[in-house]
Amino acid sequence: MDGAAVTKPVGKPFDRITDLVRDDMNRVDMILTQQLNSSTDLIPKVAAHLIAAGGKRVRPVLTLASARLCGYEGPDAVRLAAAVEFIHTATLLHDDVVDGSTTRRGRPAANRLWGNKPTILVGDFLFSRAFQLMVETGSVEVLRILSTASAVIAEGEVMQLATANNLATTEADHLAVIRAKTAALFAAATEVSGALSEAGAERTEALRIYGDCLGIAFQLADDALDYAGDAGATGKELGDDFREGKVTAPILNAYAAARDDEERAFWKRVIEKNDQQNGDLERAVKLMRRDRAVEQTLDDARRYGVQAKAALAVFPASALRDDLQGLVDYVVERDR
Question: What's the CA gap between 261 and 263, in Å, rounded?
Fold first, then answer.
């Protein structure tokens, strides 16, 4: 449920944002390397395996860009960006164990190389490092935002277990999982910069809304990519979610649009029972196209994108604000 599978360079707005904060991102990388030091050799090996695998570092870049948008120029934004990346990496390590994943970012998942126990414990180590970095800012509000997000993400993982392979999952329940597992860290990554910058309640809340809506749009678009994306461009195999029996927005839309008992029985077999046969993915995609299940998911993503862009209206017009708004469009329309 997280959008980490995206490997194609993000569109031009993100490129410009990344160029703007490149020096700070280099400092973030230095902190990540330093904080991975441990007398236990396995810790840096497991953590570096995932961190070195790439990813666009969207969340820490958003933290740095949001701080710039608020006019902040101090050193603590770099520490918080590193903390955000550690939290994200920790959740990926835990997710791979829970989901039984075999690959991550095109490489063998850490749990496949070192086993579940070391992977979970290294994830815990990264969470601890993140909290150490938060404390260094001396801001109780910063600690509140990121610690709350960490708790919500854990809740989201448990919520997803309750909805796994369950076609009775409601749209509201699925949205709650997305908001907890993916959007919570996006929202914290942007909101925390407003708090650090002492930008005021209105602008800090605007950044939270921007991150929340961007995160929801990001995940809905990622759900759509499983059935309508360019596998070569995304690094994500088409049908991964389907083969795992994941209940995502396109699946819920398609099941709701089923025209007869036979179609409903098909969805129950392949998703709830995870009993899949040759040709089932092709049939699923055909039904989704007929009923616009993927397009409906993207329409929902676009609506959240509109809200994300609107939230930034409280900030003065600037090239950075335009690029942050432009990033929303890329997130929704990427790689199709």
Answer: 5
pLDDT band at 102 (very low <50, low <70, confident <90, very high): confident
- Provide the pLDDT for residue 231: 53
> Which domains are assigned to the chain?
12-220+304-333 (1.10.600.10)
CB 84, CB 185: distance < 8 Å: yes
Distance in angstroms (rounded) separating the CA atoms of residues 128 and 108: 25
Contact 44, 32 (CB under 8 A): no
**DSSP state string for 159-214:** HHHHHTT-TT--HHHHHHHHIIIIIHHHHHHHHHHHHHHT--HHHHHHHHHHHHHH
Q: Side-chain half-sphere of 336: how many Cα atoms within 13 Å?
A: 18
What pLDDT shows up at residue 7? Answer: 39
DSSP helix, strand, coil percent of the chain (3-state; round to 5): 75, 0, 25
Rounded Cα–Cα distance for residues 56 and 228 (Å): 22
- Answer whether residue 9 shows pLDDT above 60: no
Q: Is residue 259 classed exposed, middle or buried when 0-12, 13-18 and 19+ CB atoms within 10 A define those classes?
A: exposed
Residues 67, 159: Cα–Cα separation, whole Å: 32
- Predicted model pTM: 0.91
Residues whose CB falls within 8 Å of the CB of residue 68, separated by 6 or more in sequence, listed in order: 20, 21, 320
Q: Is 108 helix (H, G, I), strand (E, B) or coil?
A: strand
* Tokens encoding 328: 């929303």
Please give the Cα distance from 30 to 24 (Å, whole number).
10
Which range among 65-69, 163-167, 174-178, 313-317 shows the weakest confidence by mean pLDDT?
163-167
